[in-house]
Amino acid sequence: MTSQPEGNILVVDDQENWRMALQRLLEGRYNVQTVSSYEQAEQAILASSFDIVVLDVRLVDKDVFNVAGLALLDKIKKHKPNTGVVILTGYPDSVSGEIVQQYGADAFVFKAPESGKFDLSGFRSLIHDLAVKYKSQ
Question: Domains of the chain, with CATH numbers?
Answer without folding.
Answer: 8-135 (3.40.50.2300)
